[in-house]
Amino acid sequence: MTVHRHRFRVRYGETDQMRFVHHSVYLLYFEEGRTGLMRDLGRSYADLERAGHLLPVVETGLRFRSPARYDEELLTETRVAEVTGARVRFDYRVLHAADGSVAAEGWTVLASCGPDGRPRRMDAGLREALRAAVEAPGTAAAAPVVQR
């Protein structure tokens, strides 16, 4: 399974009044991991959109395990979990870089559609690249770390 790892520090503007990362920000962390994984697969979102293939998020889930705070170093791990003809599910873990404990984990489902917003089968090349990522050998420990 291909795993994309993204290391970064929590910015002040990502925290709430309680000094924790605001719950909504985790979806941005997921997006950053997902777009990085897509780039690793040679399929950037920008290129897909220019070719008329859109992948809007249609479902998401998020579970908080332990709070993250300002200036803390985090690591987002992103994997392709499942691919069908018109949908793809990504799974995520946001880890505290200092000890590897889980701050949050979740998933998103993206649906393939055309520029008109109507559902359609996923681009065959993209679908095969995503399926290969599910089946690829490897572990998170062997995956490259990308920093922002």
Overview of this protein structure:
This protein has 148 residues and is α+β, with helices and mostly antiparallel strands. The chain has a single domain, classed as Hotdog Thioesterase (Thiol Ester Dehydrase, Chain A). Helix content is 23%, strand content 33%. The protein has 3 helices and 6 strands, in the order βααββββαβ. It has helices at 25-40, 45-50, 124-135; strands at 3-9, 57-64, 73-83, 87-96, 102-111, 145-147. The longest helix has 16 residues, at 25-40. It is globular. Mean pLDDT is 92; it is low at 139-145.
Brief digest:
The protein is of the alpha+beta class and 148 residues long. Helices cover 23% and strands 33% of the residues.
What overall geometry do the principal axes of the alpha carbons give?
globular
- CATH C-level class is Alpha Beta
Distance between the termini: 23 Å
Poorly predicted regions: 139-145
H-E order: EHHEEEEHE
Annotated CATH homologous superfamily? Hotdog Thioesterase
What attributes characterize this protein structure?
single chain, 148 residues, alpha+beta, Thiol Ester Dehydrase, Chain A, six-stranded mixed beta sheet, 6 strands, globular
Question: What is this structure's SSE topology?
Answer:
Layout: E1 3-9, H1 25-40, H2 45-50, E2 57-64, E3 73-83, E4 87-96, E5 102-111, H3 124-135, E6 145-147
Parallel strand pairs: 1-6
Antiparallel strand pairs: 1-3, 2-5, 3-4, 4-5
